[in-house]
Prior knowledge:
Blueprint lengths: L8 H14 L15 E8 L1 H4 L21 E10 L5 E2 L4 E3 L8 H11 L5 E7 L19 H18 L4 E9 L8 H5 L1 H15 L7 E4 L6 H5 L1 H17 L3 E4 L19 H19 L21 E8 L1 H4 L5 H5 L11 E10 L4 E2 L4 E3 L11 H11 L3 E8 L21 H17 L4 E9 L8 H21 L7 E5 L13 H11 L3 E5 L14 H16 L3
Parallel strand pairs: 1-5, 1-6, 2-5, 6-7, 7-8, 9-13, 9-14, 10-13, 14-15, 15-16
Antiparallel strand pairs: 2-3, 2-4, 10-11, 10-12
Amino acid sequence: MTPTRHRPRLLGALALFLSQSLGLPLHARESDADDTTTRVFIFAGQSNMVGSDSKVKDIPRFPPFAGLDQPQKNVLFSYSIGREDKQTSNGWVDLQPVGDVVGPELSFARRVTQQGEAPIAIIKCAAGGTTLGGDWNPDEPSGFKLYPLALDLVRSSLAELDRRKVAYRIEGFMWHQGENDMFDAGFKAAYGKNLANFLASWRRDLETPDLKFYIGELCTKTVWGMDNRDNMYAIRAGQQAVTKADPLAEYIPTSHDAVEIGGGAGLHYHYGTLGQLQHGVNHADAYLRTIGKNPETARPLKTWPYAKGSPVKLFVLAGHRNMEGERAFTRELEATPEHRSLAADNAKIAFKYSLGGGYKTSQGWEPLGPAGYYDTFGPELSFGKTLQGKLPGNIAIAKFTHSGSQINDWTPEGTTAKDRNLYAPFIAFIRESIRELEAEGHPVELAGIAYHAGETDMAFGPYRRNAASWLKSTVARSRQDLALPALRWHVSQQPPVEEEGLDAIDVTGEFAAIAAADPNFIHLKAFDLPGQEEKLVITTSGIVRLGEILAQSFLERQ
């Protein structure tokens, strides 16, 4: 954190010493009780920082973010957005969407202001299709020369605060960029080095040696994320090297955020409206953790629900964006009379989870209930309710998902993108769940794994062609590693996208062939789910129905 404007350096150094000696966040030791100093945040990057392919009119479709299409009059905003035809605020204005674009600053600001009284201000400079090696290069800027432009914007905006006699401190720098550097061999190889220089240059030029940076992960839940897997991994590796070496830089996972679905398969490299709003929450939560404020609500299982020594059937749910519940919102569940009860915690079923590849994890066992990180839920709610009504004995549910993953991320072989390999953590998660239940004194039966097949894989030929063989490999190895040769996998599949060139790959038939040869591989064609407004993403009522379909499959085989 940087000092308040004109504060003597000695106080900043003293705060740093106290923070390190007491093991507390720096912010917690430097006047965080001060609710009058304006916290200034800088947002910069390329198209996914701009908010490309988002639409302001779509914000009301997503209940957790309702109202963000309106100005936030308590937040100052100064911006320069775009390349040739820039949109500029020409000074400070109320925070609001710029044109028809939804940027992450909208949800960031609301999340942060909900957690504290201090005023905030945001300075944003972003332009699509730009590189850190060129446009954003602090030493030799080329192309659109965004580094000097952004620096001038920040300085002039702060000077205006000085003229208004507004006390402020620069609180954090949010950076989301890198997609274009991966297409230049030199820029890709030097991304980590260039990023470290970028951070150092800002701290030098703003005279803020302790400025905290939040480095956003690239969007990989796309055809681009599959077709450019190695390229994106190279950029991520550079980002992660910098954030590991720099104690004032943090890597912010965002690959689990929603992606807009457009024409055809519609999968590109932009988040779209919902993903942009979630993107802002990612950065806000990271900042709030930095200052010792955690916006998460604890959901403890106050009373252990099972009698000592009684057996427990453990059901494991696993998968990608729809198993996670990307567009299934708790508020819509609460507004539906027949499903409203699912929104309440069910303390009779112990629930453990790891979502988004570990982005959010349960604190031990919790009551079964909505646990998504964006006020969302998955099929586990209706799954548990259906089983509880018809299956005798104790049941527990453990859920492991990563909505930004593809099927090959789950294979025991993994891929060259080593930071995305999920098989080992998935098996470890199952083993840990069993051990924890046994430690409570229960004999545990692993009743099976319910897996919803990767949706995004079906929109890209090379992945669709290999989906069945990848999944078959994972199933076989899981039985071996868990020492359960007859372990049942209940694999649900929604209709694969129909698109010229993809239709010739009969992935449904390939899944069916595995089931025909393996009695413990149950193939469930969930082809009539309600509420699927887009080709890949199932919404609230469909997620409820998916949970019921999976539960019924287990019940039929008891």
